[in-house]
Amino acid sequence: MSAETPVQSAGNFTRLRLRFRDWRGSRPFWAGVFTLLGGVPIAYFPYATLKLGTMSIAMATTAGAGSLIIGVLLFTLGLTMWFQQATRIFAGVAAIILGLVSLVVSNIGGFIIGFLLSLIGGALAVSWVPVKPKAEGAGGQQAGWGPAGDGVAETAPEGAIGQPGLPNAPYEPADGGAGHGVPAEDANGGHRVG
Question: Which segments show compositional bias classed as Gly residues (predicted)?
């Protein structure tokens, strides 16, 4: 192995991580994760068997098939949120409704775990909004921002220097500098602007 191999693999890992971050940011990723995870306990618990020594405890109900259907639908809705962003609102509302139905059908919504996860996932999907590209002003810069986009304020319009009341205009005292930079007072005791 050469000394360049770890650097190259680190570059590949970084590139893949950045690609995944871009992919994740362009869709309701966490909504899909919570919805997928919500479907697992709802579908699993009615078919699970817990063994305590020689005793087996089955949590099966008469609606075991209904629990499996709800779990599979939640899993499918989670994938839909990832790969079909246009249907995110439908998928979110359907996940919320299936989570509510699972309270009655599937062992209190997969012992509340699946119910809460599917509700959170559905709510995140409904509230997710795609990022809009930033509008650019003239010259490739946003209005009011410096060349590096670091919040540099705009300069005053031409001919505005020395005019009181305009933003970014330097202050000039009304008495021509005789008052040492303190504005003159008017008859009411307030300061005159110009």
Answer: 137-149
Of the candidates 67, 118, 66, 79, the residue with the CA atom closest to the CA atom of residue 95: 118
Chain centroid to Cα 11, Å, comes to 27
pLDDT in tens, 79-120: 999 999 899 999 999 999 999 999 988 888 888 999 999 999
- Residue 170: which pLDDT band, with cuts at 50, 70 and 90? low
Ramachandran angles phi, psi of 57, nearest 5°:
-115, 115
Exposed / middle / buried, residue 136 (Cβ in 10 Å: 0-12, 13-18, 19+): exposed
Q: Hey, which residues does 49 pair with through a beta bridge?
A: 58
d(CA 111, CA 108): 5
Q: Quick one: CA dihedral 124, 126, 127, 132, positive or negative?
A: positive
Token duo for residue 127: 């509230």
What is the pLDDT confidence band of residue 8, given thresholds at 50, 70 and 90? low
* Structure token pair of residue 91: 């998928």
pLDDT tens readout for residues 145-158: 445 555 555 555 55
CA atoms within 13 A on the CB side of 103: 11
Does this model's pTM top 0.70? My answer is no
Q: How many CA atoms lie within 13 A of 43 on its CB side?
A: 16
Q: Report which DSSP code applies to 57.
A: E
Domains of the chain, residue spans = 32-127
